[in-house]
Amino acid sequence: MSRKISYTDEPLGEIEVVADFLPPPQELAFREEGVKVTLALSKRSVDFFKSEASRHQTQYQRMIRRLLDAYVDAQQSRAPAPGARRAASKRRTT
Question: pTM for this one?
Answer without folding.
Answer: 0.54
